[in-house]
Amino acid sequence: LGVDAVYNGKVVAKDANEKILLNLLNKYSKARIIVSPIGAQGFIFGRGNQQISPKVLRKVGKNNVIVVATRAKIAHTPVLRIDSGDPEIDKLFRGYIRVVINYREEKIMKVV
After folding, report:
1. How sure is the predictor about 2, in pLDDT bands with cuts at 50, 70 and 90?
2. Secondary element (H or E) of residue 54
3. Through-space distance between the first and last CA atoms of the chain, rounded to whole angstroms
């Protein structure tokens, strides 16, 4: 899956790899990751988006991750999962996270 980077409404990188993302994180002080879980499996990191590596996640931080999903997708996704390849990062992201499911509507979901 591709990862694009946007700054002030302009695309600054398309289909960025880990190296590009880390360079952008050094250049721009604030960053957020907007991600959608993969199907009913519920993976938000580690499957299909390897460029969002443990190094990238560590720099951005859990509080700057926004998970978005449709109501239909969430209805078939009992929990969210992370498999970053770094047990420390996986532990950091476990717990509960807000998921945007509609305009001004969120659901709290467990990350395992």
Report:
1. confident
2. helix 54-60
3. 22
Residue 15 CB coordination number (10 Å): 11
Measured between alpha carbons, how far is 83 from 47 in angstroms, rounded to an integer?
A: 7
DSSP at 103: T
Q: How many CB atoms are located within 10 Å of the residue 51 CB?
A: 17
Q: Which amino acid is at 43?
A: F
- CA of 47: how far to CAs of 26, 56, 75, 99, in Å? 25, 15, 20, 18
The model's pLDDT over 16-40, given as tens digits with 9 standing for 90+, comes to: 999 999 999 999 979 999 999 987 8
Give the residue extent of every domain in the chain. 33-111
